Amino acid sequence: MKHFDFAIIGAGAAGIAAATEIVRHFPDKSCIMIERDNRPGGILLQCIHSGFGLKYLKEELTGPEYAEEVFKKLSDQPCQNLSICLGTTVLKVLPDKKLVCSCRSGTETIAFDRLILASGSREIPFGALSIPSERPAGIFGAGEAQLLINRCGIKPGRTGVILGAGDIGLIMARRLIYEGMRVTAVVEIKNEPGGVRRNVQTCIHDLGIPLMTSSTITRVHGRSHVEGVSVARVNEAFEPDFSTEAMIKCDFLLSAVGLMPEIQLAREAGAAVKKGHLELTDVGQTSVDWLYACGNAARIFPIVDDVSIQSADLIKSLPGLNDGGGKW
Amino acid sequence: MVKPSPICLTCPVSCSLRPQTSEMPGQKLCPRGEIFRLQEEKEPLRHYFSTVRMADGLIYSYKTTEPVPLKAIEEFGRKLSEAVDSQARNKLHQFFCNRYQVKLTCIDQEK
Questions:
Q1: Which of B14, B58, B71, B105 would you mutate first to test chain A, the one with the most A CBs within 10 A?
Q2: 3-state DSSP helix/strand/coil percent for chain B, to nearest 5?
Q3: 3-state secondary structure of A85
């Protein structure tokens, strides 16, 4: 069985930053970075819009460009003790410090001393919103639709409605228009969009997309596939006023209602969880003393630059470094 | 429907471009903000980004190296909506990449 001093789950922004600091500060230690995708970069590979890197790299880049730059920073370090496994999924973290992984050649068990969870986040599913429907086809998470469009070349439909006007919802509204689809409404429960002003301008006002604030979807229509949604105004307590309900026709719905850390592996390994988040010390250590979390697996970061900075700080604060200490 | 942006889009600060009066002292624009304001009044330009499958069979994300007219982006979106299938859409994207200078980044699996 192979043994490594460090194991990193995920080769997105957090994993790459953690690996960069490990090879820099622990050059004699062995490290393995495991990624389920066939290339490093994580969610950045599907975030083809710009707005990344202003803080960490001092230039504005698209997601794939940011991934390329940070991976180059890692590759520029002497990496003789670093192994990167692509196309490999971690199935389980065992309490005796072992990982069970699935890869092309079958399953493999890897032993480690310290585990860094850099598995990112997942979307809050539409099903969690308790909006009545007959579960028709055509309801997607915004990130799911982004993957389909950007990495698979598949359109989710012709005419869509987006629930949620945070940055992800706004960016997907623009993406749909740029790809020749129609967006009949972006529906936001709060009285103003949650995304930054620049995104509101370029994604909504530039393109003339109707933005319905203080509103929510009360029903999805259609049996086999989405045929429309009902939208109603909400009061200050976010309760829908059904007397204001109106039907909007569409053939797909994107749900952009937030992210939550992907922590299932840590949970199964026995790490303490509170309200869907790992309980962490100042330095990102979980209740399992050999298990750490960084990036969106620790908490949701609005910008990826902070993911890279926080992940690097985590490694710098690990015991064994003379210059330790990094709080976040 | 192309309207000038009321805010500067050059950087995340997003300064207001509205005229500064005694009632609305606002904020003084930086040199890049002034350039943006003048261009916005003349013809709004925006960066365009999308994905394209190139001749090597791999998918690349692409972004224009210089912003292009917003009207051209709207027109391109209309053409994409009329494309019959993904192959036709991809041809349009290849045409766009030839028409405007773009930067390509591979996002496909390494073969």
A1: B105
A2: 35, 20, 45
A3: strand
**Alpha helices (H) in A62-217, listed in sequence order:** 63-75, 142-152, 167-178, 197-200
What pLDDT score was predicted for residue A30? 95
Tokens of A290: 């050999």
> Whole-angstrom Cα distance, residue B25 to residue B6?
15
User: Measuring CA to CA, which residue among B8, B4, B103, B56 is closest to residue A50?
Assistant: B103
Strand stretches in A148-276, DSSP E: 159-163, 182-187, 211-212, 215-221, 228-233, 246-249, 252-255, 259-261, 273-274
Q: How confident is the model at residue B16 (pLDDT cuts 50, 70, 90)?
A: confident
Low-confidence residues in chain A, pLDDT < 50? 322-328
Which residue on chain B is closest to A208 by alpha carbon?
A: B1
Pick among B14, B48, B61 to test the A interface (most A CBs inside 10 A): B61
**Is the CB of B61 less than 8 angstroms away from the CB of A39?**
no
In chain A, whose CA is at the least distance from the CA of B44? A206
* Listed residue (A9, A185, A171) closest to A98, CA to CA: A9
